[in-house]
From TrEMBL, chain A:
Full protein name: ABC transporter permease
Residue stretches in coiled coil: 120-154
A Pfam family annotated for this UniProt entry: ABC2_membrane_3
Keywords carried by this UniProt record: Cell membrane, Coiled coil, Membrane, Transmembrane, Transmembrane helix
Parts of the chain that traverse the membrane: 182-207, 228-254, 279-301, 313-332, 338-356, 368-387
ABC-2 type transporter transmembrane domain segment(s): 19-387
Main location group: membrane
Organism: Planococcus maitriensis
Membrane topology summary: Multi-pass membrane protein
An annotated GO cellular component: plasma membrane
Keyword Cell membrane attributed: yes
GO MF annotations, alphabetized: ABC-type transporter activity
Localization in the cell: Cell membrane
């Protein structure tokens, strides 16, 4: 156990001290703060010019502007309108020269006809608000002309009450689902990145030790199996630490932005109704996925002689992870699909897909437990198999780097 | 007591036999030299001794049992392919590798310092290995193999690629280490190093052990001697005499290989007949000659 800890600490320390690790961590943390504060940052940049500017209205009838302002205020819009003293030609020239962002022309006696003139058509948020307000204005005017009662008007515009009810027991209500979706999406993304990033680190590390030939000294000192698992555990702990830093940074970033977790953008992510079990499963599947792919990566890393060849041999593994991500990202909109259910029991897809299912559906406990058991079994088999390949692989130097080398490596390790 | 004992060890890789039925004992406290051409099976033999490779047949025992990772603190190894972490600092690296062999951290730190001083490179302690010259890297590599005070030290080509000054420094360190009681096995293709350092030696050729024993014994049983005659006159003709196996001309005279000592006296008499003899010597064969004889013949 003594040497296990020494390798563990070494793997953890040397990786944590690398510039690339620190820079990656810093960049991600910084981007969290940037993202969380993005709305206020954007506001501070264009706070004074267009949002505060009063929109000039060329009102030919002279009766709409005031009503429009009242309607806008009622809608909670910040747009200020003012009947312009300038002619349409003058305003048009202003917009063309860039002195003015936009202006509005209102015409017509019975039906309102509006023209919104701006530099580019992309400033549509303001236009849409105006259109909405004008529509309401129009409706109110027509209702007045038709002499409709207030109650009649309400009847006319009463929305259809439509509720979606899911009969399947495992299904969550639509409301719950859409809330869970955002969070699960983000966590799948995190697991996906983690099972690519950290196992890749392991493969590179193993290939590095092999190409610098320090491996022969290492495995003459400590058994290759111990060496492999100590390394996997060391880098795994580093991964957990990094994830914890990210989580803390994310939390602090949101706090610093002054917004509430249940408001605005974050309400879409489902933070308002955070379920503890979702996070618990996220951590569990992160660990299982990591170990599964880390053992595979160590095995593959032990086969190459030069670090340049790592990526080539890692390709089959990457394909597995990418397929898993496809299944789970497509499954977000239909978590009950048959292929999602099947994939959640296939060990290499399970870390992502089973997490999707436990995150979005109310499935019985035995389902994730079975999937976890399958994964643990696979990790065990891979570990046993990987250790045998590793033992021979680390002594094998040659130009060929294909999966056929696995057989050669096992032979060499076995002494046959 | 025999510390390292190789018993009928054979190692095959696929259809290729790298080591073919080798039996060999190395006594405690001895220095044993392994000679062999490239690809003769030296490294494979070492890897079997270390337990990195399992023999196809036979076994390698250390103090009566097979080497396992439990013996790790007692064994030191300098691989033929030198390998250290290029980006790690020398001192950290030495301590890490010693601790992997279960040495105490404080002892390892002190030991690393002492050895760096002994090899006159204490200022490299905080340098990265990749910044060091090859010769200095090799010093570090040797320190890494013996810092934890192993009882068995296996050195695969410890002197290759070093300048003469450093070879002397390392030789002395290895001899001193042997005096402290360690059993040392090393391989080389430099006969003079083996001749100078070893008690026992063996020659491997294509996986087979062709010579094995103490150096004196090997030389005696080789049964051949060299006669060196320096003369002012041309003595080339003497090379044709019966009993002379080989004649190598030198600037003033030459060396005759003979199997029978009496031929030497005869050669001297004939040389005196031709002219005055400046030097006459009856010499033991060098290991180099034995090596070429044993291995070279097999190649023909």
């Amino acid at each position: 156990m003594y040497s296990f800890w020494i390798i563990f600490k070494q793997a953890f320390k040397t990786k944590a001290m690398t510039k690339s690790f620190m820079i990656t961590t810093l960049v991600v943390v910084a981007s969290f703060f940037l993202l969380a504060n993005l709305p206020s940052i954007i506001e501070s940049f264009n706070g004074n010019d267009n949002s505060q500017q009063t929109l000039q209205v060329v009102d030919e009838t002279g009766q709409y502007t005031e009503a429009l302002q009242a309607q806008l205020n009622q809608q909670g819009s910040s747009i200020q309108v003012d009947a312009s003293a300038l002619s349409e030609e003058q305003l048009r020239a202003d917009v063309e020269s860039g002195d003015r962002d936009a202006f509005l022309v209102l015409e017509g006696d019975n039906g309102i006809t509006a023209r919104y003139i701006a530099q580019s058509a992309t400033e549509s948020a303001q236009a849409a608000e105006l259109e909405n307000a004008l529509q309401n204005l129009q409706t109110a005017r027509v209702a007045e002309q038709l002499e409709l009662e207030e109650t009649e008007l309400a009847q006319l515009f009463a929305p259809v009450g439509m509720e979606r009810e899911a009969l399947a027991e495992s299904s969550k209500s639509q409301e719950e689902l859409s809330q869970a979706r955002g969070l699960v999406y983000i966590l799948i993304m995190v697991i996906y990145i983690a099972v690519i990033y950290y196992p890749n680190m392991i493969a590179m590390e193993v290939a590095n030790e092999k190409s610098s030939r320090v491996m022969e000294i290492l495995i003459s000192s400590v058994s290759p199996v111990k060496h492999m698992f100590a390394k996997i555990a060391g880098i795994g702990s580093l991964g957990i630490l990094q994830m914890m830093i990210f989580a803390l940074a994310g939390y602090l970033a949101i706090q610093s932005s002054g917004s509430d977790l249940t408001e605005g953008v974050f309400s879409v992510m489902g933070f308002s109704e955070v379920k503890f079990s979702t996070f618990f499963y996220a951590i569990l599947f992160f660990l299982l996925g990591y170990f599964l792919y880390a053992v595979l990566a160590a095995l593959l890393g032990s086969l190459v002689s030069r670090t340049e060849d790592v990526q080539q041999l890692m390709l089959p593994m990457m394909v597995l992870i990418i397929i898993a991500s496809f299944i789970s990202f497509s499954g977000i909109s239909m978590p009950e699909a048959g292929y999602v259910t099947i994939a959640s029991y296939i060990p290499f897809f399970a870390p992502l897909v089973m997490f999707l299912r436990v995150g979005l559906l109310d499935i019985p406990l035995w389902e994730p437990l079975l999937s976890i058991a399958i994964m643990l079994l696979t990790i065990g088999i891979l570990g046993w198999f990987g250790a045998r390949v590793y033992r021979g692989g680390v002594l094998m130097y040659g130009s060929s780097q294909s999966l056929k080398d696995i057989r050669r490596a096992i032979k060499l390790g076995n002494g046959k | 007591m025999m510390t390292l004992s190789i018993k009928n060890a054979t190692k095959q890789f696929g259809g290729f036999t790298a080591v073919d039925d080798i039996s060999l004992d190395v006594a405690e406290g001895q220095m044993h030299g392994f000679l062999g051409a490239n690809g003769a099976g030296k490294t494979t033999t070492f890897r079997m001794a270390l337990g990195l490779l399992t023999p196809t047949q036979g076994e390698v025992l250390w103090q009566g049992r097979r080497i396992s990772y439990a013996d790790s603190p007692d064994i030191g190894y300098l691989p033929e392919e030198r390998g250290l972490y290029p980006k790690m600092k020398v001192q950290d690296q030495l301590v890490y590798l010693a601790r992997l062999r279960r040495m105490d951290k404080k002892q390892a730190e002190q030991g690393a310092k002492d050895w760096l001083e002994r090899f006159e490179v204490p200022h490299y302690a905080n340098k990265k290995v990749e910044e060091l010259s090859k010769g200095n890297q090799q010093k570090i590599q040797l320190i890494a193999s013996l810092l934890h005070n192993p009882k068995l030290l296996i050195l695969d080509e410890p002197f290759s690629g070093l300048d003469p000054v450093n070879v002397e420094m390392l030789k002395k360190a290895i001899l001193d280490f042997q005096k402290q009681g360690a059993t040392i096995v090393f391989s080389s293709h430099r006969m003079d190093h083996v001749e100078e350092l070893c008690d026992d030696m063996s020659i491997l050729d294509k996986g087979k052990l062709v010579v094995h024993g103490s150096i004196r014994e090997v030389k005696r049983t080789f049964g051949k001697q060299n006669v060196r005659i320096h003369s002012d006159t041309d003595i080339t003709a003497l090379g044709e005499l019966p009993g002379v196996e080989k004649f190598t001309a030198q600037r003033s005279g030459g060396v005759f290989r003979i199997a029978d000592e009496a031929v030497g006296q005869h050669l001297l008499a004939r040389a005196l007949e031709l002219g005055p003899v400046r030097q006459f010597a009856l010499e033991e064969p060098s290991l180099e000659e034995i090596f070429i004889e044993k291995v070279g013949r097999a190649h023909v």
